[in-house]
Amino acid sequence: MATSANLIFFHLFLLLGLLLLSCSELVVSHSVVESLPGFPGPLPFELETGYIGVGESEDVQLFYYFVKSESNPKEDPLLLWLTGGPGCSSFSAFAYELGPLSFKPMQEDEGIPTLILNPFSWSKVASIIFLDLPVGTGFSYGRTSCAFQSTDLQACDQTYQFMRKWLADHPEFLSNPFYVGGDSYSGITVPIIVQLISNGNEAGIDPLINLKGYILGNPSTNYVKERNYDIPFAHGMGLISDELYESLQISCQGDYFNPKNAQCSQDIQAYYKCTLGIQLVHILEPVCHSSSPRQHEFFNKGRSLTERNVELDVPEPASPCAHNRDAQYLISARWLNNDTVREALHIQKGSIGEWIRCNYRLSYMTTTWSSYQYHVNLSSKGYRSLIYSGDHDLVVPFLGTQAWIRSLNYSIVDDWRSWIAEGQVAGYTRTYSNRMTFATVKGAGHVAPEYKPLECAAMFERWISHQPL
Questions:
Q1: Architecture of domain 2-223+368-464
Q2: Residue 207: is the preceding peptide bond cis (ω within 30°)?
Q3: Is 265 labeled as catalytic in the residue annotation?
Q4: Does the active-site annotation cover 184?
Q5: Active-site annotation holder among 184, 332, 371, 385
Q6: Domain extent listing, the chain
Q7: Which of the following is catalytic: 76, 326, 391, 393?
Q8: Model pLDDT for residues 3-27, shown as the tens digit of each residue
């Protein structure tokens, strides 16, 4: 409890500093984008890109893509979306998960990649700000070498500054219901950001943000504890034998990745051997090489687990990896490193060099290893939340997410049941009295909308409209 109190006092202290920032000159740069290279004709939705400077000297320039709701933008919710990593650009969510555009599959390495409309975009029912965070991610940059350095708490404070400035520049959205969302590593930062906004509203800091809740997909919440759910997940999915699982339970006593005896160490090595060659982000998909890695996301979790895959042979063209999912990421890099595309997006010239989807060389320090206490605090304040998990994800197994949600000790108001999309079971869900809904997405990996866009769009539309899944 002392740690929780210290964190809250720390954030309140930072909020006092933000009061001073509210008196500073608002510097916002944004542009409307009406067409994009690779997409035929004008865009059938409203897109804006821009930078907002944060920090005392505004040396940190945060880049964003803003998509206005295609339904009723005057009243529809406003969603701020952060991609995980840390260091993965929000363009990944824009193009591969829940944004209005995606890339035509299996494009050859020639010319500007072709863009197509995503019929399952969440912008059908909400306005979305896709933010490149932390600094050094995507097109967000620092004006000085010092500005490129950040911690998770600094990044969260910068996000709060960003939202206040963005809303001051877009006052027509001040009354819209506001949500913060993200996936993967953002399971750590999003609850902190929501807590900061809540504290700021209570302190009367202008502009007041119409905060209603938050959304998290395949979220990391407590890195140390949730790793221990890898083993029962692997057993439930048939990746390890009953005998090995029983031995692991006895020898490791539930603490699987901090072996305290020789037998536990031996059993863990046997587990590694059994899962060698398994794609951690989706256990049914092949392990493939990619210059835009996915498996090292959030805290570079399980490097010992993922880097072993490097030893696998380079696939032949006829193999399952000939047109693998990871290869699609290379298309976004080709597109965003094209000068014509950058000009269309109004990217500041000379601000960054090569765009990469996930920048794992950030000068970024993780100081918060668990966001659990923030969920405790936010639950007590009555904010809505949607927590969903792809049920084939071995990076953040749904078993661990279920466990920390149960430990909040709220009563169940809608017990475990299937939810349906297009007449089929799309997953399972449960809702609690703290207004938290948990859902699995059947057949999805890390992260769910990338694998099951139709189902996730249906889930989001129902939840954001206050309907049961």
A1: 3-Layer(aba) Sandwich (3.40)
A2: yes
A3: no
A4: yes
A5: 184
A6: 2-223+368-464, 226-311
A7: 393
A8: 454 454 445 445 444 443 443 445 5
